[in-house]
Fold this protein.
Amino acid sequence: NYYPWGYDSDNGPDQWHKNYPIAKGRHQSPIEINNKEVHYDRSLLPWFASYDPGAAKTILNNGKTCRVVFDDSFDRSVLRGGPLPGVYRLRQLHFHWGSSDDHGSEHVVNGVRYAGELHLLHWNPKYSNYLDAVRRTDGIAVLAIFLQVGETPKPEMKRILEEINAIKTKGKEAPFPNFDPSILFPKSHDYWTYHGSFTTPPCEECITWIILRDPIIVSSDQMAKLRSLSKNAENEPNLPLVDNWRPTQPRYFRMVSASFL
Ligand SMILES: NS(=O)(=O)c1ccc(C(=O)NCCc2c[nH]cn2)cc1
Ligand SMILES: [Zn+2]
């Protein structure tokens, strides 16, 4: 009998490997990033995002996260440079967050957990489609940006959070036109990069992670807005959608490179 994975004790990260054996692999994400073990790689190039606002399509609640979906039928919104061998197409962005401001991110930096983490998922168009790309070690690139709670929140987050009311419950979707996610980026493009996996099942090990060093600032109210999402469908008892983050996984013999000193 099929029992969907989730983040509860009976279907959470410690159980995922039973249905998705890759979850116990040697290249899993997220991981802890410690400055002492990071390798400064001065050959790392800057990365560039060239996003078309017209590619934004919808925003949805799938019961696991809040996701914005983009048209990835051609090289319309792309990420390139950095550790990447070519252009990668933007397919979707989504968030991970906690039940309170002191945790919620997936990656952890020198022991610091942020309130949340924004992931922009891109796939390598040298493969025929997304599901082919997720089977390749160079198939996917995720740009990760930490959300830090502070007094001067980033106004650009408002657009996404205003739509939350339209997608309160699982399965809800709303139009989300004319949105360029690069307005969410912090000033500095400095980043860490390493090879890892999807942080949710099936946990395929096909991701080049590009993690920005600098967080974007959101307000506590904005985090509360994310926490107002429900993981249940409309006609079911209310279950807050919170703590949709995977704990850090063993790094094993992987190098984390930094683009900055
Ligand atoms: N947190 S994250 O690692 O950035 C991430 C990004 C995308 C997905 C996703 O869309 N999963 C459903 C489709 C699928 C099956 N196999 C690969 N993708 C999950 C996790
Ligand atoms: Zn994610």
Remarks:
- The mean pLDDT is 97.
- The helical segments are 16-19, 130-133, 158-162, 220-227.
- Residues 94, 96, 119, 199 surround zinc ion (ligand 2) (CB under 6 Å).
